[in-house]
User: Fold this.
Amino acid sequence: MPTLDPADLSERQIYNFMMSSILPRPISLISTVSHEGNTNLAPFSYFMGVCSIPMTVMFCPKVGPLERVKNDTLLNLEQVPEFVVHVVNTGNVETANMCGTALPRGQSEFDICNATAIASERVRPPRMKESPVAFECTVRDIHQISDQPGGG
Assistant:
C-alpha cells in the first residue's frame, strides 16, 4: 500500500482522500441565525458526536478562499452562539445537496432547498421539519485549527 504525504497533495486532494476513506461518515445540516435574524442551513461532512455527558457534538466549518474566509455558519455562530444539528438521511439527502449551494450572505437556504423552518424549543435558529432527528445546541467553544483555505 503506497504512503501519502500530505505535503505533496493539494487541499482538494486531501479533502477527497479523507471523504472517501473515513467511512461511514455522517452528514449533518446545521441551521444558524445571524443577529439580524437571517437564517442559514448548511451541510457538513466534518461532523460527529463527541460524548454523552454532557451531550456534545462537534462540526468543522471549512476555511474558504481568501475572498470569503468565513462561511455564513461560522459568522452566525460568532454572533449568535446557538445552532441546530439535523441528521441527514435518505429522506432529506436532496435537501442537503441543494443547501451546499453558495448563496449571498443573508439569503436563506431554507427558501431554496425545500426545507420547512419551524421554531426550535430552546435555541433561536429554526429546526428543519423534514429531519427525523434535530439536536438544539449552544456553542461551547470555537477552536481555529488553521486559517488557511481548507483549514477549519
Remarks:
- The chain is about 15% helix and 25% strand.
- The chain has a mean pLDDT of 89.
- The chain has one domain: 6-138.
